[in-house]
Amino acid sequence: MKKLFGTKNMKKTTKDSFITYAMVILVFLVVQIMVGTGSMSSLLQGLLVPLCIYSIAAIGLNLCVGYLGELSLGHAGFMCVGAFSSAFFTKYMADTGMNEILRFVIALIIGTLMAALFGLLIGIPVLRLRGDYLAIVTLAFGEIIKNVMNVLYIVKDKDGLHFSMSDAASLNMAEEGTFLINGPKGIIGTPHQSTFTIGVILILVSLFVVYNLVNSRSGRAIMAIRDNRIAAESVGIPITKFKLMAFTLSAAIAGMGGVLYAHNLSTLTALPANFGYNMSIMLLVFVVLGGMGSFRGSIIAAVLLTMLPEVLRGLSDYRMLIYAVVLIAMMLFNWAPKAIEWRQRHSLKDMFTKKTKGVQ
Which whole number is the average pLDDT over 75-88? Predict the structure, then answer.
C-alpha cells in the first residue's frame, strides 16, 4: 500500500514538473513569435528580463518558505551578493580579452556560489534555533549587505587592487586607475549580457534543481521537518543538515537571479529600491499569492504582478487601486476555503470523471 501510494505521488509530482517546464517553454516560444512579428510593445519587451529575474528569485524563496517552512525576509540581500560579486568579476575582466560568453558563465557561477556561501554562513548559527529568528536575521543581513556595498570603494590600477570603506580619496590610486566599485555610485559600465533567452534557461535550470530536490529522499526529509520537526527528529533525520541544505540552495538561486539583474543594467547600485526590504517583501508576496510549495504558481504570480503595474500605467489615477484589487482577488482565489472547494469541484479531472460515468 505504501509502495502504491509512493508511486502515485511520484507520478503526480513528475507530471506537475513537466507541466511547469512545458508552460515556461510555451511562453518563451509565444514571446519569441510576438517579438519577431513586431506585435509586442517596447514596454513589454523591456519587462522580459525582469520577469525572469523575479521568477527565479521567487522559485528560490518558495523552496525556503514553502518546502522548508522557514520565513526569510532577506532574499534581496542574497540577490545583492550575487549581483555585485558577478558584476565585480565582469568589470575586473573587461580589459583582459576574455570571451564574453565564457566571462558571463564564470560570473554566473561566481555570483551563485557567493550567494550560497553567505546563505551557508547565516544558516549555520540561525537554523539551529526555533521561531522567527531566521526572519529577523535575514532581514538584518539584507540591510547590512546593502549598506556595506554603499560605502565600499575598490580601485584597480598598475599596483593591483585598493580597498576603502571611508571615501575614494583615501585609496591613493594612480592616474590610470579605474573604479570597480565606487561607493553609492556602485559598478558602472557592466556589459548588457542578460537576455530573455538566458533568463528562460536559468528558470528551467532552477526548476530542474528544485524539483529534483523536493522529489528526492532529501526533499521528503525536508518536508517531514516542515510538517513535524519532533517526529522527524525522532526517526533520526538530521534536522540542521537538511534545513541548511534547503536554505543554502534557496540563497544560491536568489544569487542566480541577482547575476541576471546585474547584467541587465549598465549601472548597478545598492539602493533601497533595488535590494531593500521592499524587494524581499515583494518576492514573499509572489510566493504567498502563487501558493506556498507551488513553483509554477510563484512564476505565474511573479509575471502577473510585475506586468500589471506597467500595463495599467495609462490609468494613472486608478492603477494602484486595480493592482490592490487584483492582489486581494488572487489571495481569495488561492486560499479561501470556498474557492478551494470550487476549484476542486470544477477541476478538469473531476469533470472528465463525471462525463465518463455518465456515458457508462
Answer: 92
